[in-house]
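Fold this complex.
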Amino acid sequence: MKTQTQTYSLNLGPQHPSTHGVFRIILELDGEFVVKATPVPGYLHRGIEKLAEARTYTQVIPYTDRMDYLAGMLMNWGYVMSVEKLMSLEIPERAEYIRVIVGELSRIASHMMSVGALGADLGALTAFTYTFRDREYVMDLLEMTSGSRMTFNYMRVGGVVKDFPPEFYPALKHFLSELPGMCDEYDGLLTGNEIFIARTKNIGIITPEMGINYSLSGPTIRGSGVNLDLRKTRPYSIYDRFDFQVPLGENGDCYDRFRLRIEEMRQSGKIIQQALEQIEEGPIMAKVPKIIKPPVGDVYTEIESSKGIYGSYLVSDGSTKPYRIHFRRPSFINLGYLGDLCKGWKLADVIAILGSIDIVLGEVDC
Amino acid sequence: MLESIFIEIADIIRYWFLDLGTPELLTEIILMLIKLSAILGFIIVNALWLVYMERKVAAYIQSRIGPIHTGPKGLLQTAADILKLMGKEIILPDGINRIIFILMPILIFVPPLMTWAVIPFGRDMTAVDIDMGVFYILAVGSLSTIIFWAAGWASNNKYSLIGGMRVVAQMVSYELPLVLGLLGVVMISGSLNLNQIVIAQDNVWFIFTQPIAFLIYLIAGISETNRAPFDLVEGESEIIAGPYTEYSGMGFALFFLAEYANMMVVSAVCTVMFLGGWLAPFGMDFIPSWVWFFLKMYFIIFLFMWIRWTYPRMRVDHLMAFGWKVLVPLSLANIFVTGACIYIFRGIGW
Amino acid sequence: MAKYLQPEEIIWKLKSNFPGIRLGEEQDLIVKSEDLISIMTELKDNQEFSMDYLTNLTAVDYQEDFRLVYNLFSLTCGHSLMLKVVLLDRENPEVPSLSNLWAGAIWQEREVYDLMGINFTGFPDHPSRIFLDDDFEGYPLRKDFQWQGGRE
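Structure:
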């Protein structure tokens, strides 16, 4: 005889410690097993795309770093790149290098947050404080250049707003020398931990086929072994000048996705190191008219943000304000798979899976 | 002088009452009440201190500073927290079972208090010296399961209920290895009296003759106190706070303090059973026996904190599998080996 | 074996089967909404194109019409393509859903439906509001949406 248990629904969120913000999942549970999961985003929707239509092209920049506020530089970059492409602007060498350095620093900060948050989701709060301690270095560095710690508003159409101050270089070199040690520390605390492995290995497996079908990107799909890193597959900016690897996972489980991020931090450190060696003196802004009026037309550009492919689709009607902007936010699209991914796992695994996908609600809800 | 300070105080009180002409039985009852209230006070003060210690240890492990502002070196932080919680409104949500909901935070202190009554603090220092000590502790210790579960059930909240069910599952699976682990010690010492067990460790502590039992007890003990990596019951990233989700103000504070009281009980029992209780190591008798007891107890507590702030949380099925597939067979094997060894050594005539 | 293709080459290869398509100003393909599914299937399954990855899906309100924008990417060959569908019906804009081809389209189509009010057909229980309340009135990204607090 088969015993039948009654399922019940559990409302996870929007106020819940491990939904990384205001995100809601309606779980249909059979005991501890998930029968059905319905993600409900939208609690942080601000309508940035609509707001941007009433702002000038430069005024949109501060809105972008409110999307993925953990990697604001990359968000700035993706947007200004689309405007530059529409205007066919040539960016000065030095500005490109500065963008790469601050962008990779942002990526490191974002990955640190993700690694620590997954640790905290699984109950290892110490990992969280470790990564926060080290993220502070990055925040300080970015504060030196942009004057802000999270919402930088640092990039402009045609370049960046300020050059590095002199004290930035020794601080950055110090950070780069410390970075491998920091990564080793996370590895020692989490990656090799028996409980952590049991909690993440073979949990929430994303097959490469499903990953591609669901348009996943970033570490979420690279964990499944799909080599999709726009910095390598379709180098934008000056990424073809750097020698770095794209770490790939094998099983597509939470463990691989987690491990990749630590590897990527190391690789980002390498990129910054090379950029520091190659950077030369020069202007940091292209010759851009005071009033930005891109020609009529539309353009779609993509960069590799810390969460995945960050695209920005821009339509101009020739005025000073964008006619329409659409941002392809990687967190949002990666989250589309969550409902199917959680099916059949336990309640505790849902937290691990959500943590390993690494979402930022500001970006999901836009 | 320091060695027997508590005994002398008790004697002074006893003779003072006898001199007043109080009958002997009444004197003993009054004395027992004094002892128990002293233990209650001790537990609460100690729990406050342990919260502070936990914070400091956690801060040290996490490269932070921890509380520093309230009182010297932040010592009054927990007292301030408790005061704050006392001033808060106790929220009674809709649809709860009021009586159970209110009763459970009060009852949660009963099992640790009852356990402490039989634990020997030092030489001849036991509030109630009973011959069934070990049995009594195990019986009383499992009472807290019911309290947690009842609190989770009465809260009328799914998170609480999941937490409550997890408590039951976890306690049932870990009570067994706990008991079986302690059985090895009982077999060697040949007594269930805690004082006798301590005295039996005069030559060598049981941690050396029963290392596996010690490990099993330690693991099961962490699980009994619902601390990381076995803190699935509260697992704040999954089920908010488990059975305590709906509690506020003092109700929550009591649960919070009870966790530390329980931790103290488990460490104290561990000290008595494996670390030689109040016996002084290396013949260092100049330090009073009760000081030794507390030193050992705090060492175990520190170990608990260290583990908590290092490991992630386990998953329910892993926890069960570990309990039933590893700990229970291991403790059974331990009993078997212990029995065989005792038989052989008796045969040789040790 | 598949190789890197320019948008012109893709159009040239597709032209024989789908005479209705034309090249837009930005090297993009403009297709009719009734052809959409068959063209997308061809682009996805034909080894020559192997556009297996749907990166982006959005819509623009050009006031006289709606235009849906699809960005495809080929993981094996590395080429990418932008497709557009022009919807002249402003009252009841409808387009076939790509959810059966790419599950990644589900959430993006829901977003477009939520903010732009374009209906996607051919997928059960789809689309539904994703960000806004279910009883929200209007579609905010349309140009004729009335809103307060704007900076004009």
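Residues 166 and 233 of chain B are 6 Å apart (CA to CA).
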